[in-house]
Amino acid sequence: MSRTSAGQPAPAWSLLALTAAVAMTVLTGLLGASAAVSPLPGRRLGWLPPYAMNVDPPPAVVSALMALSVLAGAAGLVGASRALRHGWQPDPRRLLAAGALAVAALAVLPPIGSADPKSYAAYGRMAATGRDPYVTTPAELAASGDPVGAAVESPWQRSPSVYGPLATAEQALVARAAGDSTRAAVGLLGLVNAAAFLGISTLLQCLAVTAARRRRVALLWSVNPLLLQQLVAGAHLDTLVVLAVVSALALSARRGSAAGLPAGIAAGIAAGSAAALKLPGGAVAVVMAWQARRSPARLAAVLTGVAAVVGTGYALIGVHGLDQVRRASRFVSLASPWRPLATVLDDRYPGARTVLSLCALGLTLALAGLLLRGLPGRDEPGLATVRATLALTLALVLTATYQLPWYDGTAWALMALLPASVFDGILLAHTTVLSLAYIPGRDVMLPIALARTTEAARSGIAPFLLMGVLAWTILAVRSAPPLGYSSRQGE
């Protein structure tokens, strides 16, 4: 067993758990089409992935693999994080290399745990063939004889795109390269996501201010099995949102008269890109604009950058690109803590969803204010933008009516830059519960026993566990150390 310079043993069981978690996710994808892995019709684009066998594993097997991966990953993160706090000093370069190896393995497999990349491919295909993805549905694309539209799975066949103009641009570029092959389009989208994940790892290392913080970043992001499963294996667009947010923070951190205004514009462009990918990504733009309010020149620079991306994007696609976003704001996901209340009110009050959305927004803003006080790192001026963005982002993922595990990605990236605190456990609990709730991922027929178990976990257990996580967050804020406490003690 290796030891650190401080004499602390490397946490062998934790490293084994982290490795096993990634290995089980890789195995799930390697087995090929299943209840967790969508079949990918169409030709392969040269030698490019995805690659997989054709084992046809039972739904119970892939569900067990995914659940064990999540549980092992969560346990490994708990153990390794505790070891970091007690003197374990791994070389962050080794952790980065291990994370890159895991990303490479997952990037060449078909998407795991979700069929969303097929809908991305369809929206890109629409844009590439002259259709409007904000009006056209995949079912309408399929009706025209297009095989990419025909490959889209429930529940997205009748849903126009909810994504921003920059997301559509990326999807259209991929579609032009892939043609009418779903396999090629999904494979390319997965490679782009994998590259984005590695880019985030690099940027976070650059933003980390101490060796201890670089080790923390490598653990909580680069080798985090939950993020590898949700963002890389799942090939979700949210990875690009995280990249844009972290890029905005990196550019915003540049100071000095020589770099001030150009960096402000560049940071605004990156922040605007986050919003133009998915609207909630714009939280960083709100924070940056608020923090620049006392400097008219910097505020103008940030807003110019944001407007250059968001304004141009929506000018090109039209404001109707926000229609589906407005409709989606009334959705309540099955595992959301709001779900029990929505179920009770839906049949009695037709406008209940609108009221719930407004209540969720109010709770988000209130919790963001509390988190801004309670998050660690208040004594580090360089973390002000990170803390404020995390406060708003974490409040949103904890209180939104529509919650999915891959939505937590931005919060993880920002949390990794702060000192260790109770909020690490809160975010881990939130992502773990949601990850377990949405296993195996695809909307397909399951054996009766597994279907009942899945429904009970997703709609019966997860909402109440997430209520508990929210309550835990409020209690943690109330117990936050007073102003003036140095959160860097022990580092």
Could you characterize the architecture of this molecule?
- It is a single chain.
- The chain is an all-alpha fold and 491 residues long.
- It has 3 domains: 236 residues, no CATH class; 88 residues, no CATH class; 160 residues, no CATH class.
- The chain is built from 21 helices and no strands.
- Helix 3 runs parallel beside helix 9.
What's the helix and strand layout?
Blueprint: H1 12-30, H2 59-85, H3 92-107, H4 116-128, H5 138-143, H6 147-151, H7 165-178, H8 182-207, H9 211-222, H10 225-233, H11 238-252, H12 260-277, H13 283-291, H14 296-317, H15 323-328, H16 339-346, H17 352-374, H18 384-399, H19 409-415, H20 422-437, H21 448-478
Helix pairs in contact: 1-2, 1-10, 2-9, 2-20, 3-8, 3-9, 3-10, 4-7, 4-8, 7-8, 8-9, 8-11, 11-12, 11-19, 12-13, 12-14, 13-14, 13-18, 17-18, 17-21, 18-19, 20-21
